[in-house]
């Protein structure tokens, strides 16, 4: 296995700010949770429900943004600076269109949605207060997401990272003052957490606007003048399957959680304890995959098809090394988890031992799928990637998981179905990738 230093440096320079971006984005909810936790169980439960709803909307925004990112990356690779402005405006219209629809939905139906999730009036009322402010945050974050994907597609991934580094301390400081009432400001509780997040996101938006005004290659007036219905329709057609892909995967993960909840309390507790750590590991791979997809999109824009197969092979080799490192990390994690979560019941510790082989081995297969799915989407095969996810997760894995729980099979088999799903995806993605890459090879 030969690894090109050029490929390593190229993708690493893109990927490490993306990793930090992803971690910082997730930390925003942790900031609110840490600050709200002294208020008691009801505000914590309300924050959990409300933030999950907001996170779903922001996740769809990000997935739509990933589609725009690939389109702009192709234009960047082709050197079509005029087209970049048009693509950026089209991305803004599509993303903002979704965000405004979500805003209206939250405005009109947030009470009904929350009642479906919680039967506690106190929790629902607190969650409504949070969402009454958070829905404005959704609109502001839509604008920031479009600006972020422009910088990412232009290989300037550090700029969004600096934006998050500005936002996080602002969010913590402002929310702390507003939640608990400091310096003469009244204590607003959970509402203060929402306001703090809104103000902090607004500060990040101001920073990104200042930075994008310095981009000499952008001409928004020209981009707006050259925006046509055909351009907008084409943009929407390309980003829609990527957004649908996120909805399918998120829905599947939610259904997995609901199924796991039918296990014994100890088995479910064990799965719940390892899931956040699995997500952190997945963020590293996802960032590497996004960086690879940006580069593939730029190759396509340059019509440099011949280099794509070798590049994909190289970044796949590097991803496999990352996967092994993560697997070793999870192996070591399995020994220290009792110290991280002291006071667990013996039954929970036993369940953790049983499921350890699953989460240790998961990076070895999921890494390939994440990288392959993102590069295939960059090559224009988003619908085929979506089909693979629907078949393997919804038609095979989830029904098998439900059947395993119904027949009372052990927790390692139930949880192990998630790795079976990933193995099935490897077979499908490998075939798709080989077929597509063969079209780029010289005759």
For the termini, the CA-CA separation is: 25 Å
Main structural class: mainly alpha
SSE series: HHHHHHHHHHHHH
Q: What coarse outline follows from CA principal-axis ratios?
A: globular
Count of runs of 4 or more consecutive helical residues: 13
Number of strands: 0
Average pLDDT reading: 86
Largest sheet entry: none
What level of helicity do the residues show?
A: over 70%
Number of domains: 2
Low confidence ranges: none
Keywords: Membrane, Transmembrane, Transmembrane helix, Transport
Protein name: Na+-driven multidrug efflux pump
InterPro entries: MATE_fam (IPR002528), MATE_MdtK (IPR050222)
GO molecular function: antiporter activity; xenobiotic transmembrane transporter activity
Per-chain topology:
Blueprint (H helix, E strand, L loop, with lengths): L4 H32 L4 H38 L2 H37 L3 H33 L4 H23 L9 H24 L6 H6 L3 H32 L4 H37 L6 H33 L5 H33 L3 H25 L4 H28 L5
Structure description:
With 443 residues, the protein is mostly helical. It folds into two domains: 1-227, no CATH class; 239-443, no CATH class. It is built from 13 helices and no strands. The chain has helices at residues 5-36, 41-78, 81-117, 121-153, 158-180, 190-213, 220-225, 229-260, 265-301, 308-340, 346-378, 382-406, 411-438. The chain is globular, with a radius of gyration of 22 Å. The model has no long low-confidence stretch (mean pLDDT 86). It holds the Pfam family MatE.
Please tag this protein with its features.
443 residues; mainly alpha; 2 domains; 13 helices; globular; membrane
Offer a quick outline of the entry:
GO terms for molecular function: antiporter activity; xenobiotic transmembrane transporter activity. With 443 residues, the protein is mostly helical.
């Amino acid at each position: 296995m030969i690894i090109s230093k050029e490929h390593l440096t190229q993708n690493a320079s893109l990927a490490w700010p993306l990793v930090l971006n992803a971690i910082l984005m997730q930390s925003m909810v942790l900031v609110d949770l840490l600050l709200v936790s002294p208020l008691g169980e009801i505000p914590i439960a309300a924050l959990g429900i409300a933030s999950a709803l907001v996170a779903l909307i922001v996740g769809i925004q990000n997935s739509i943004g990933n589609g725009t990112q690939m389109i702009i990356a192709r234009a960047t690779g082709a050197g079509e600076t005029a087209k970049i402005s048009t693509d950026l405006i089209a991305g803004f219209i599509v993303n903002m269109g979704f965000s405004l629809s979500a805003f209206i939905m939250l405005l009109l139906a947030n009470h009904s949605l929350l009642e479906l999730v919680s039967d506690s009036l106190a929790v629902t009322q607190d969650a409504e207060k949070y969402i009454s402010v958070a829905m404005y945050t959704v609109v502001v974050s839509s604008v920031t997401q479009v600006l972020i994907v422009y910088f990412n597609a232009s290989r300037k991934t550090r700029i969004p990272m600096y934006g998050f580094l500005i936002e996080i301390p602002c969010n913590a400081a402002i929310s702390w003052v507003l939640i608990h009432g400091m310096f003469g400001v009244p204590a607003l509780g959970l509402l203060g957490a929402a306001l703090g997040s809104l103000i902090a996101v607004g500060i990040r938006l101001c920073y990104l606007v200042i930075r994008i005004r310095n981009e000499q290659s952008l001409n928004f007036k020209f981009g707006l003048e050259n925006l046509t219905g055909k351009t907008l329709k084409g943009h929407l057609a390309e980003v829609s399957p990527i957004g649908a892909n996120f909805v399918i995967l998120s829905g599947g993960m939610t259904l997995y959680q609901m199924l796991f909840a039918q296990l014994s309390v100890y088995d479910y507790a064990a799965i719940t304890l390892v899931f956040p750590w699995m997500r952190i590991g997945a963020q590293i791979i996802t960032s590497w995959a996004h960086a690879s997809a940006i580069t593939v999109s730029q190759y396509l824009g340059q019509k440099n098809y011949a280099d794509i197969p070798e590049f994909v092979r190289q970044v796949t080799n590097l991803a496999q090394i990352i996967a092994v490192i993560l697997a070793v990390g999870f192996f070591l994690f399995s020994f220290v988890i009792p110290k991280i979560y002291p006071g667990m019941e013996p039954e929970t510790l036993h369940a953790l031992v049983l499921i350890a082989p699953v989460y240790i081995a998961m990076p070895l297969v999921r890494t390939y799928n994440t990288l392959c799915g993102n590069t295939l989407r960059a090559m224009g095969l988003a619908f085929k990637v979506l089909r693979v996810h629907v078949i393997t997760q919804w038609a095979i894995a989830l029904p098998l998981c439900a059947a395993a729980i119904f027949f009372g099979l052990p927790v390692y088999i139930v949880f192990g179905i998630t790795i079976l799903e990933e193995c099935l995806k490897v077979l499908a993605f490998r075939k798709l990738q080989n077929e597509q890459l063969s079209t780029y090879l010289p005759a």
